[in-house]
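Predict the structure of AraC-like DNA-binding protein.
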Amino acid sequence: MPIENIPELYIKDKTESPDLFVYDFKMTTDVVKSKVNLGMNMFSFLQVGKKQVHFAGTSVAVNKDQSLLLKKGNWLWTELLDTEAIYYCKLFFFSEEKLTDFLSKYTNDVKPYKEDVPYFVIENDAYIASFISSLASHTFENHNFSDALLALKFEEILLYLLNKYGDTFEYYLHSLISKDVSPFKNIVENNVHSNLKLEEIAFLCNMSLSTFKRHFTNEYNQAPGKWLQDKRLQKAKELLQGGELKASDIYLEIGYNNLSNFSVAFKKKFGISPTDISS
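Done. Here is the predicted structure for AraC-like DNA-binding protein.
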């Protein structure tokens, strides 16, 4: 799975590094999962379709009634078409410099939350819908005042969201310029019960797969594949013992591509098949 460097991928003039950038993104085929190196903080104003994103130890899913503000860094995301077989969103990128200027101008010197949440979910309303409609990329091309106009749009949406969400949004904005990096073990352990592959967890840790495996072995004194499998199978056993779920309900969630492989691994570890517990 290749890594997509965004917004660089969308900028026509590769010699430019704009502080503010708008891009209209459309597609007509589902993208099950993409590796994205997000080089700038970004608003994702989803208009048609669904989107799920993973960052370090957390994930979130939104539909067209919501928008996302995402922290720069390594993301895994899934984009799904709607019933009309189309996916459409407007992306609004901004640099830390622009955000710092805004915070200095309009907010107090507050500290970010200790728990650094990498995304902020925005509930769309009539004002935001109108703002999204005004944010077409062609509006800012070949315009004598495009930079100034885009700067005003940037301030507009942030001021509106500060008014809408208050301190919660202000603290979040300050957290975006924090240089703290999520610890390796937090990322690993927050994804223990996800269905992410080793390669995908390594990507969220900003590591190659080989580097991730070495680092993991140093931290846990065990190979990551075996460690994760044991943790996920133990979780599967707990879910089945609850009596409400069957093996067919959970094998994908536990990280297996098919029910047969899950059943074989489960029986090898516990000596009984999943159906013996759930029946």
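The chain has two domains: 3-175, 187-278.
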